[in-house]
């Protein structure tokens, strides 16, 4: 059932490409409120429009809500949102080294791949990009966390199944935490999306966070 709904939902999930973030535009939510938080452990979110709060106030997207939850539950981590609408795994791979050098994150949340699938990127290349991002994060002393993604069957059932399996394969090979498809709880509910029928609306942002939290929270240090 989720697969059939995704034909419409994911057809252009992040296809609306926005300009890449300039150096001064990274969203460092904790440091913006409290400069003293600049020395706290960093959670770097490397994603596309689903994490870039497309169509909703940035301060109310799921990544900003993550910062709020961390603070409420006594975790010192600060969240840096380096997500860009329209981003691909290749784009994330190009940007990641500089982000690692600048922020020295403890965790790197890799929410990328949907745009690759929508463009029909060969699956070995997607897997290679995911592996290289995870390896770069690991070599920099960070824990990579991979997000499972789905795509519709526009390129055939075999491609769609192989696409989803790619995230499991890379996470399994590299022994990485895997966030299950985080739109799963809302994918069949049209009221959970903006007028474009693609991007989760404001009311859905807490549900996205709730889908990520069970994988991330056990890894955090209070």
Q: Which features characterize this protein?
A:
222 residues, six-stranded mixed beta sheet, 8 helices, 6 strands, 11% strand, globular
Structure report:
The protein is an alpha/beta fold. It has helices spanning 2-9, 29-33, 62-72, 89-103, 114-118, 123-139, 157-174, 205-216, and strands at residues 27-28, 42-47, 78-81, 107-111, 143-147, 178-179. The chain has a 6-stranded mixed beta sheet with strand order 1-3-2-4-5-6, sandwiched between helices.
List the helices and strands and how they pair.
Layout: H1 2-9, E1 27-28, H2 29-33, E2 42-47, H3 62-72, E3 78-81, H4 89-103, E4 107-111, H5 114-118, H6 123-139, E5 143-147, H7 157-174, E6 178-179, H8 205-216
Parallel strand pairs: 2-3, 2-4, 4-5, 5-6
Antiparallel strand pairs: 1-3
Helix pairs in contact: 3-8, 4-6, 6-7
> Unreliable runs, pLDDT <50, ≥5 residues?
11-25
Instruction: Tell me, rounded to a whole number, the average pLDDT.
Output: 89
Helical stretch tally: 8
Structural class: alpha/beta
The best one-word shape is globular
Please describe the biggest sheet, giving its number of strands, its sense, and whether it closes into a barrel. 6 strands, mixed
Q: Please compute the radius of gyration using only Cα atoms.
A: 16 Å
Distance between termini?
A: 39 Å
Query: Using DSSP, what is the number of strands?
Result: 6
Portion of residues in helices?
A: 40-55%
Reading the helices and strands in chain order gives HEHEHEHEHHEHEH
Strand fraction: 5-15%
Q: How do the strands of the widest beta sheet line up side by side?
A: 1-3-2-4-5-6
Query: What oligomeric state do the depicted chains represent?
Result: single chain
């Amino acid at each position: 059932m989720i697969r059939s709904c995704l034909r419409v939902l994911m057809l252009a999930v992040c296809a609306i490409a926005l300009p890449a973030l300039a150096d001064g535009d990274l969203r460092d939510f904790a440091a913006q409120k409290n400069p003293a938080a600049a020395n706290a452990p960093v959670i770097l979110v490397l994603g596309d429009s689903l994490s870039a709060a497309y169509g909703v106030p940035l301060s109310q997207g799921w990544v900003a809500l993550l910062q709020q939850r961390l603070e409420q539950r006594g975790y010192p981590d600060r969240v840096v949102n380096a997500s860009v609408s329209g981003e691909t795994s290749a784009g994330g791979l190009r940007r990641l080294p500089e982000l690692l050098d600048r922020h020295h994150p403890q965790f790197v949340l890799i929410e990328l791949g949907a745009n690759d699938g929508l463009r029909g990127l060969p699956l070995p290349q997607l897997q290679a990009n995911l592996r290289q991002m995870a390896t770069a994060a690991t070599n920099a002393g960070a824990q990579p966390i991979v997000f499972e993604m789905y795509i519709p069957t526009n390129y055939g059932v075999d491609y769609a199944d192989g696409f989803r399996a790619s995230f499991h394969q890379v996470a399994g090979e590299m022994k990485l935490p895997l966030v299950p498809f985080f739109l799963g709880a809302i994918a069949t509910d049209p009221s959970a999306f903006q007028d474009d029928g693609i991007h989760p609306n404001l009311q859905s942002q807490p549900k996205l966070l709730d889908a990520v939290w069970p994988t991330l929270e056990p890894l955090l240090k209070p």
